[in-house]
Amino acid sequence: MNATIDLLKSHRSIRKFTDGKIPRELLLELIRAGQSAATSNHVQAYSVIHVVNADNRSKIAELAGGQDYIADCSDFLVFCADMKRSTEAAERAGADVVRGTTEQLVVASVDTALMAQNVAIAAESEGLGLCYIGGIRNNPAEISSILKLPEHVYPVFGLCLGYPDQSPEVKPRLPLETILKEDYYQDEQDRKQVESFDATMNTYYRERTGGNKDTTWSEQLKPLFTTKLRPHMKNFLERMGFQMK
């Protein structure tokens, strides 16, 4: 395979960083690389908040679940789905704009994720480490207040960037045949494949922690579908103008 594919397959989340600072021009170049991602109808429905203020980073770290590496990494970015800029531009061009649709929420969220992943790949190509922070959606209203986000903009996730101070193993992924379906959705073998993957992940967790973590992929999913549902997101998005109509 080529170097790009090898890089993509070597991704690890990094949560310990050195004191090294990313040069400003490199950071800007990463954002430019992000802007080159595919975007629905060229809407570019995203904004990126570079959180520099140390107090704000500490507050966000706490609001995101006590993730200290938000404060410790070289640079912390919050990727926001942004329909404010584009709808206002269309309005100025004479359109009778409709706001708050479900499709706009989907477009902005997808645009933001694609842009961020370009940034991530570019960063790793430069030897940087990173960690996505979905925990900012634990308290999205408070974080939106810190970042002064207007209506029709919402924080999707954060991204820690810096020089790695750890080298964890690459975490295994589901077998390819589990997620790649031919012609139509087929799940006859999914249960067996998931059971096999659970065994793989159990070995991975035990080896990574010296036997201190004895769990599986399926076990790790349980809180995501029981306690970490973030039911507040619907009301929050509606308050921010994403009415899903």
TrEMBL record:
Keywords: Flavoprotein, FMN, NADP, Oxidoreductase
Nitroreductase domain boundaries: 9-163
InterPro entries in the record: Flavin_OxRdtase_Frp, Nitroreductase, Nitroreductase-like
SUPFAM superfamilies, alphabetized: FMN-dependent nitroreductase-like
Pfam family, one: Nitroreductase
Signal peptide region: none
NCBIfam families named in the record: PRK10765.1
UniProt family annotation: Belongs to the flavin oxidoreductase frp family.
Full protein name: Oxygen-insensitive NADPH nitroreductase
Organism per entry: Marinobacter albus
Taxonomic lineage from the root: Bacteria, Pseudomonadati, Pseudomonadota, Gammaproteobacteria, Pseudomonadales
Gene field: nfsA
